[in-house]
């Protein structure tokens, strides 16, 4: 059953009304009714899909009507229950979710983890074959909170308003402001200002989520109830392999060890034991070795290379030639070179044949290559066939058109949002944080995130009581691994409901 909030032209395949090119842009939304069969009964919900026009007051004027500047695409899932009052609905939590990139649409969290329908993507070693299809998601967060998945500018179907330029939104600060404006607009349109508001971001989406949450508090005095940081990066200085910066070599090493374990380089050992040993070395001995540099004797270098090589599963001579500094793209090309394979960056459990057996770096990422086709096929089919929305522009799954991405506000310093997160937690005493790490994630390594979280400018009691950190035996998009998907779904459910039910589906740190 479908309710359309716009009337498409009979001869238009796009769902957009035929209007003059000079007419102001309009919202283009379609609302459909759905029901998900769960073990404890049906979950009825509406899905509102399409683009909304965001407006802003003209700069330099004392007062001005809002001028359109962006059309953002989103899907809003709102649970419905017979007999429920509008007051009950207004107090139900609402979760706003987005991916990162920059340049990634939110298809990954939408169909991989959160929505009422999920993609059958397969996993490492067994990616799904076409034809690709969707499954009912019995673990959807919609059981506990209404869900809004939104695409950032130039991703998905999000575009600037006619006559506006997309580049103004392609940067950390402008993107932050745009998403914050969308959240305010959605709460206002849907009369949900009293609902507990949660944000969920993945990868650069965690950078976005931290910045947006701080912006909502600083600009609008909206204190979010919680932020879910999935595969986080909060300080780019911890993962950027720049000359003179040894931090990434230290923070990536435990991830290298975990990936080596996944490929049988630590036969007979538990993953947790390998990770613990690698973290101890990375925190205690490794920084001193790198700092010593040329002051190390030949024997000391050889001993250090042997130790590192054993931990991360590569030839010590290769480590020695790298000056004890193993860059991640080089590691992913080297680890299984003798087998003619390259290892995944997004998820180090994935592999693909090497194109050039002597390549110094990985040519492409097999984890993205093997997962993306199922997401691409299903989102395009799902939006049209089930949510009944279509457009004449391409749904941008991963867009390079957002680059160059501007970090102009961080000139001469590291790009970081840890200070935003710290400020928010100091200002808002009820905001909590859920952090989710994949052990085999070579894009945003877990040890880097651990380090940044431990340095937040907040009281120790807040770190202990308001930040929950979980780990999964998978990669960046840990939900492609079924045990990790189930565990993460349970952790998110506990997070938005405030419950702390014991879950033993993922390893403890």
UniProtKB/TrEMBL annotation:
InterPro entries recorded: AB_hydrolase_fold, Peptidase_S10
SUPFAM superfamilies for this protein: alpha/beta-Hydrolases
An MF annotation (GO) of this entry: serine-type carboxypeptidase activity
Transmembrane segments: none
One BP annotation, GO: proteolysis
Keywords, sorted A to Z: Carboxypeptidase, Hydrolase, Protease
Record bears the keyword Hydrolase: yes
Organism: Brachybacterium alimentarium
UniProt-recorded name of the protein: Carboxypeptidase
Pfam families: Peptidase_S10
Protein origin, superkingdom: Bacteria
Keyword ATP-binding: no
UniProt biased composition (Polar residues): 1-23
Region of interest (Disordered), ranges: 1-28
